[in-house]
Amino acid sequence: MKALKLVAAGTALFISSWTAQAGVTFDNIKSKGFVQCGVSTGVAGFSVNDSKGGWTGLDVELCRALAVAMFGDASKSKIMAISALQRFTALQSGEVDVLPRNTTLTLTRDTTLGLIGVGVNYYDSQGIMVNKSLNVKSAKELEGATICVQPGTTTELNLADWFRSNNISFKPVVVDRMDEIIRAFAVGRCDAFTGDKSQLAAARSGLESPEKYDILPEDFSKEPLGPMVRQGDEQWFNVVRWTVNVMLEAEEYGITSKNVDDMLKSTNPNIQRILGVTPGMGKNLGLDDKWAYNIIKTIGNYGESFERNLGPSSPLKLPRGLNASYRDGGLMYGWPVR
Prior knowledge:
Elements: H1 2-21, H2 24-32, E1 35-39, E2 48-49, E3 55-56, H3 58-71, E4 77-81, H4 87-92, H5 107-112, E5 115-117, E6 122-124, E7 126-131, E8 145-149, H6 154-165, E9 170-174, H7 178-186, E10 192-196, H8 197-206, E11 213-215, E12 223-225, E13 228-230, H9 234-252, H10 260-263, H11 269-274, H12 291-298, H13 302-309
Parallel strand pairs: 1-4, 8-9, 8-10
Antiparallel strand pairs: 2-3, 5-13, 6-12, 7-10, 7-11
Helix pairs in contact: 3-9, 3-12
């Protein structure tokens, strides 16, 4: 009996200790009344600022989904454009609450920065784009080429690794901002530029004559892109993680922004849990049980967001590829809401 009491006391101590430490970022967000998100300085399909100051993109919509989860209101999100060099410092310092920007999740970033990746919302690979006038069909033909690249990125490291492993020399042209890289490439300051293939496709779509440019076939890396948060606040970590998951789960179960109200009548227990018909799925997150319903109603599921920003309905017209649901041969697999 005494042993059981000791175990119970230890368990209670553990729970109370966890509760005392959890929720710092979560509570700060609730207190200030908005979610502050750091996004890239301009990548079509992920985060683009229009002439009226409005933001669009897959990463922007994830930020708004977080605001809906926390406040039931997408307008309770604030977008801050942050360069690749500044992004981790901005998150570490508390300048932003989350980096939904297209950031590659790696072991080093999870273990040395005091930050942690939450999950993948876009699977990509690194490639290289050239002007067709170079008449090259492979990156292996770029001996001595000048290549524009962003500093402080895995992109910069992968580029050096790939060319070194293939015993090919090149001259890096380091440019901080993606929009500046595109301009430098367009005026011929560099023979090629490298980035995630989604970024290259986005950049090409905005050039004066997109048909003049080729994205070469080589994949320099795996690029699992996703949001990052500070370590030490499991409550906020879980809100971000499950916002990503519930948008994937909604797509899998066919719940969309247009039919979500009808889906409230579904007898499928999984759908009932997702939409808060079955109570309790919000409590452990510190959210209302309708948090997921609100996200789907306001933003839509992952497939809807992808289609608007990256898919055939967007200027980029990218195929789903690896970012299709696992049921359609992709890698996107939402965790169970139960």
